[in-house]
Specification:
mainly alpha, globular, 69% helix
Amino acid sequence: MFIVRLLESPRASSPPDRAVSSRRARPARQAGLDSPEGSRYTGAVSEPERIAVAVLAALFIGVSKAGFGGGLGMLTTPLCVLAFGPRQAIGILLPLLCLGDAFSLYHYWGKWRKENLWYLLPGVVIGVLVGVQLIGRFDKRQLNIAIGTLAVLFVLFQLVKTTLLRLEGDLRPNFKVGAAFGIATGITSTFAHGAGPVVSMFLIPQNLPKILFVGTNVLIFTWVNWIKMPFFCLGQDVLPWGWLPKVSLINAQTLKISAWLAPLVPVGVWIGVQLNRRFSEKWFSRLIHVFLLLAGLQLIFDFDIAGWLGGGR
């Protein structure tokens, strides 16, 4: 009930998609979960299902930070999009990701290759600026397709990365290569908090020891997420700049949701530690990739989840 109350928006929500029956959309409106943009997703998933999906997304942030680096964290954005719509989901997740980064940064402090950060950061800033402008121009359906496509491409990348990135000797990074990867990192991270494959393609050819690979990832994404923060807090409702989104991605409503979901992040870390001790990372990651693929396809093709779960009732 607490989560339901905090999700209630003071603003009037726009009418749900005509394709969704008023009966199916009514529970969502009562819970205050309708996106300001209106969406078939927010009407096609019931209130309890949305809360469950949001809880899973927050837990997955913690679990992914606890050692399952094979793409588990990428699942959080599609899950959150299914619950709240793309713009709200992106804004809700960023503070949670920063919290997860803080836990990881403490654990991996100093276990990184700092030069990779300096190679990537200039391009990251450019990429974030481009990404924020694109978010402001895309409508909700286009954002869903973009996020879903990134999710599917991530799964495909996991299938081919070993062959694709098998090189003779270690690759030495430089500013030219880092700028290109930095821009790609900034854009994909802004759109879907999904720059993991891009950073992996930059780091894997360097053949870093596992602890340095994970620690360098942690360092990079800590900086990337904090670079995004001011741009996510700004919109045309704050500053009259045409290239900004019409409404800030992070606002009072999304911060309330983030605050209530935040305690689940350390819980997810604990769960991740337990799973890491008891299960093979290889098979666990494969299972997560299946869920990620399904979530990505859902966002692309707009399946009616409620109709499937309810037998078309």
